[in-house]
Amino acid sequence: MALILYAGADDPTSLRQSMLQESKHWPVDIIEIDNNRPGKEVEHDMLHEEPCGRLCRAAMKGQIRALVGGPNCRTWSILRWFPKPGAPQPVRGRSPDQTWGLPGLCQQDQEDTDNDSILLLRFLVIMVLAHEGAKIHVHARPATLLEHPEDPVQCSSSPSASKCSSIWAIQWLRTMVRALGLTLIHFDQCRMGQHTPKPTTLATNLPLFHRQNLRCNNDQHQRQEGMSSSDLSRYPWKIRPGQGLA
């Protein structure tokens, strides 16, 4: 199977649909998981033992031939460090002792932070198991793509960048990425059709080197009226990684 975790809405702009537009005859089933889909609130909830356990077992058996996902970034975002009345406040720091939550968080903020951490960690567990399972059963690495905002230290001029959390600042995660033979690709999504620069990093073994260091070349960006940061979570058409997933 090709597994797409945290896939977003099931509509014509989903990654699965764009892949099927590329080719109607994929050699593997394309499975999307997202608990925001109507009727899938429990069946697709990766915070629960299932479906996580089922996907881990499939990974160990070498059944996951491709894995793509962008775990929730809401509690990692540098936007939390920009003071704004009523806006969410920072909940993570950059140092190892604050990566998984700042001290003194209220119950709701701590729950949101923990849930986002679990979603990331479960993606990483499945990723490692998929590589190990494929090595044993099919003797080939699964196509892999982990997407998350680029480390603000690398791409932001904000004075808060040095305080902001980032999964790419976690040393053991970077070590894991190297051990699995994945490459970090850094670029701005506006070069792929996004409405804002949205600096992004991919950890991947797909042939996407042509995107390395593609940076914003626009003087200004204009969002559609009423567009929020959550509206930018869907990959623009040109970024969708159909290549190499077969």
Mean pLDDT: 89
Whole-number tally of structural domains: 1
Beta-strand content estimate: 5-15%
Q: How would you classify the quaternary structure? A: single chain
Biggest sheet details: 6 strands, mixed
Notes on the structure:
With 246 residues, the chain is α/β, with parallel strands linked by helices. It has one domain (2-239): Rossmann fold (3-Layer(aba) Sandwich). It has 5 helices and 6 strands, in the order E-H-E-H-E-H-E-H-H-E-E. A 6-stranded mixed beta sheet has the order 2-1-3-4-6-5, with helices on one face. Helix 2 (49-60) runs parallel beside helix 3 (107-137). The chain is globular and about 50 Å long. The model has no long low-confidence stretch (mean pLDDT 89).
Summarize the topology.
Layout: E1 2-5, H1 15-22, E2 30-33, H2 49-60, E3 66-69, H3 107-137, E4 143-149, H4 152-155, H5 171-179, E5 183-188, E6 199-204
Parallel strand pairs: 1-2, 1-3, 3-4
Antiparallel strand pairs: 4-6, 5-6
Helix pairs in contact: 2-3
Put the structure in a nutshell:
Helix content is 26%, strand content 13%. It has 5 helices and 6 strands; from the N terminus they run E-H-E-H-E-H-E-H-H-E-E.
Question: What descriptive keywords fit this protein?
Answer:
Rossmann fold, globular, 13% strand, 5 helices, alpha/beta, six-stranded mixed sheet, single chain
